[in-house]
Structures are given as C-alpha cells and as structure tokens.
Design brief:
The chain has 192 residues and is mainly alpha-helical. 73% of the residues lie in helices and 4% in strands. The protein is built from 5 helices and 2 strands, in the order ββααααα. It has helices spanning 23-31, 35-107, 114-132, 138-164, 179-191, and strands at 5-8, 15-18. It has a two-stranded antiparallel sheet. Strand 1 (5-8) and strand 2 form a beta hairpin. The chain is rod-shaped. The termini are far apart.
Length: 192
C-alpha cells in the first residue's frame, strides 16, 4: 500500500492529502497558469509596446518640427542682422564722405576728399545689395526706397559741392553742405 502524501499549494497555502500516484499530475494542473492570464498579460504587453512606439514617434516628429521652426527663425534673424549691417555701413560711409567734403570745402585740401572717393563704390554696392535683398514687409521695402533716394540725393549734393569748390570766408555756414538734408538721411536710416 501507498501512504498518503500531504501536499500544500505554494500560492494559496491549501493543504491536500494525496495518494502518491496522483500527486505529480495534480501539482502540474494547479501550478500551470491559466491561458486567460497568459493571454491577458501578452495583450497588455503588446498594448504597452505599441503605445510606447506611438509616443516615441510623436516625440520625434514634434522635435523635428521644432528644429525646422528654430532654423527658420535663425535664418530670419540672420537676414535682419545682415540688413542692419548694410544700413549701418551705408550711414557710416555717407557720414565719412560728408565729413571729407566739408573738410575739403573749408581747407581746400584735396586730402580730405579721400573718404568721399573711397565711400562712393561702397555706398553704391551697399544700395545694390539692399535693393536685391528679400524684404518680407512692404512697408520696410518702401522705407528703404525712400532712404535710397535720400542717400542718392545727398551724394549728388556732395558731388555738386566738390565741383563748386571750397567755401569762401564770406559764404559762412550757408554756402556749404546743407544740414537739413543730412538730418533727413540720418532719420531715414533710423526708421528702416
């Protein structure tokens, strides 16, 4: 005869009395996970993996869009910086030329005309670059065209004053380069 075996289930703690021949079969049945639990955990794992993939993909797409937006903003800032540098160059060159012409008109020394001669090509080049620039705002473009007309008018006035020659002591301040037009050019540079 076979002696009965006391068997205790590890999960529930239930105690059973078994005959030795049935113990292994019953233990295998009690310890095997149910197929429902296995299917549920597999499905849950699949859902978590798909959700993780979707969230990761959404994050990558958002990061890509932010990078493109940042790149466009950086490009716009660089264009504005270049435009401001051109406008500054235009103003500085025009003021240098005007100072040189004033020096020539007061002293009749042609050395002072060097800044006028050097600035001419630079001013023309800067105006061409600004005219070919892409202006996103029509009002800025119109303000620049107004500024360009003032600069060109000022340059003609400088040229006429050089051709007229130095100012005689009797002409005084009214015989030289007019300040009103010069102020208009400076103000227009500040508004562009």
């Amino acid at each position: 005869l076979q002696t009965p075996i006391l068997w205790q289930h590890s999960g529930s703690g239930a105690v059973c009395v078994l005959t030795p021949c049935l113990a292994p079969a019953l233990e295998a049945v009690l310890l095997r996970p149910t197929t429902l639990l296995l299917r549920t955990s597999t499905l849950l794992l699949a859902v978590v993996l798909v959700l993780g993939f979707v969230l990761g993909l959404a994050w990558l797409l958002t990061a890509q869009r932010h990078a493109e937006t940042n790149q466009q903003a950086l490009q716009a800032v660089q264009e504005q910086t270049n435009r401001l540098a051109h406008l500054d160059t235009l103003l500085v060159r025009l003021l240098d030329a005007e100072s040189g012409v004033r020096g020539f008109m007061i002293t009749n020394n042609p050395v002072y005309l060097q800044s006028y001669q050097d600035s001419g090509a630079e001013i023309e080049k800067t105006l061409v670059e600004l005219r070919t620039d892409h202006w996103s705002d029509g009002t800025q473009r119109a303000a620049f065209e107004q500024l360009a007309q003032l600069v060109e008018g000022r340059w003609k006035l400088l040229t006429m004053n050089i051709e007229r020659g130095p100012v005689s002591p009797t002409d005084g301040a009214s015989g030289g380069i007019g300040n009103v037009h010069g102020l208009a050019v400076i103000e227009a540079c500040g508004q562009t």
